[in-house]
Amino acid sequence: MDTAPPLSPTDRSTVRRGAKRARTDRADLHAVLDAGLVGHLGVVLDGAPVVLPTGYGRRDDTLYLHGSTGAATLRAAATGGPVCFTVTHLDGVVYARSAFHHSVNYRCAVVHGTARTVEDPQEKLLGLETLTEHLAPGSWTATRPPDRRELAATVVLALDLTEASVKIRTGPPGDDERDVPAAGDPDPVWAGVLPISTVLGEPQPCPLLPPGTAAPSRVTGRVLSPPG
Amino acid sequence: MDTAPPLSPTDRSTVRRGAKRARTDRADLHAVLDAGLVGHLGVVLDGAPVVLPTGYGRRDDTLYLHGSTGAATLRAAATGGPVCFTVTHLDGVVYARSAFHHSVNYRCAVVHGTARTVEDPQEKLLGLETLTEHLAPGSWTATRPPDRRELAATVVLALDLTEASVKIRTGPPGDDERDVPAAGDPDPVWAGVLPISTVLGEPQPCPLLPPGTAAPSRVTGRVLSPPG
């Protein structure tokens, strides 16, 4: 059960466009974040936005991000500049009876804030475990843990989920009444939704594995989170 | 055949991290953009980055974006502020023998620049046609075109693909030699790739359609672009 307080939007996290699509339940935010594997991190570098795909993992209301100490976007985030982290799932193409009302069904979480560089060694390991388990459940204990050199080469950032918004569109097109033909029209324009989903394929073993090595259940039994 | 010049990266579009994953062929840029439906637009608002999912369409080396005249991010982009537009495809989870070398296979295009607000009525219609046909091929001619009020409510932006970079990761994990066990290890850690793909489902007709209205081939016959 999710007992966290509801999302309390600040000015910039208030959904203005399509406000009827906004959700204010923190459980919706968690569900959208947990269902994704990669988000888009935005930072400002030399006055211009830079948006790059980034892995992440959530623990309660903290989002952990990580990257190389050599990555300029990570450095910008690590030095206390404002960041925006967005996770989007595309759930369908919405075909309408007018070009204008074409749309997409989607779930989107947007987090604003300032990231904190995780310096504490215990929390850094916890952050990396959270990230690894989000990307590949079961891998943290099944594989070699990071050594000192690897830890030194990795920046782990923590981003509070305090200032966040969620938008979700579902359902059929929102056509104008004038565009919906009366019953009996012999040739109505088709309208509806073409669903889109993300699926996992057959595991492809590394060529360096001994032939016949079976993939473990943490890989073969993996399921992606369905739409909330 | 793609005869455009190769990507000539500027300082900020030069891929620094994982440079061996960088592509410099303009055809790669086009392929990554064409295979996506939604990108992430980053702008700077009050000094902070804002990253939102945005539809788009490509015509030669121009990317068209659109949105409501009421959207703050679109307004920021329309008034000449710097933008970053990123399209990412997630192709697989890369399971390594160490936590550190876990990764993802992906294709990502990042475009930097300044958007131009399309004022010319002819180009605005062309931009909207490009956007509509990218999202829903065949819809532009099959559905009611935008009227004057709808055109006035819509901002169309044009973004040149001059300053752009492409990164693509494919293939098995890049494990350290020390982590790959010698032949004969009775219980090797599984490593490999779990492929991820995006699939289309069965069309869901709008409840306002007369029962039995068949979905047209522009919907039922649609295929998503496969990975380059």
From TrEMBL, chains A, B:
<dbReference type="Pfam" id="PF12900">
    <property type="entry name" value="Pyridox_ox_2"/>
</dbReference>
<dbReference type="InterPro" id="IPR024747">
    <property type="entry name" value="Pyridox_Oxase-rel"/>
</dbReference>
<protein>
    <recommendedName>
        <fullName>Nitroimidazol reductase NimA, pyridoxamine 5'-phosphate oxidase superfamily</fullName>
    </recommendedName>
</protein>
<feature type="region of interest" description="Disordered">
    <location>
        <begin position="1"/>
        <end position="22"/>
    </location>
</feature>
<feature type="region of interest" description="Disordered">
    <location>
        <begin position="167"/>
        <end position="187"/>
    </location>
</feature>
<feature type="region of interest" description="Disordered">
    <location>
        <begin position="204"/>
        <end position="228"/>
    </location>
</feature>
<dbReference type="InterPro" id="IPR012349">
    <property type="entry name" value="Split_barrel_FMN-bd"/>
</dbReference>
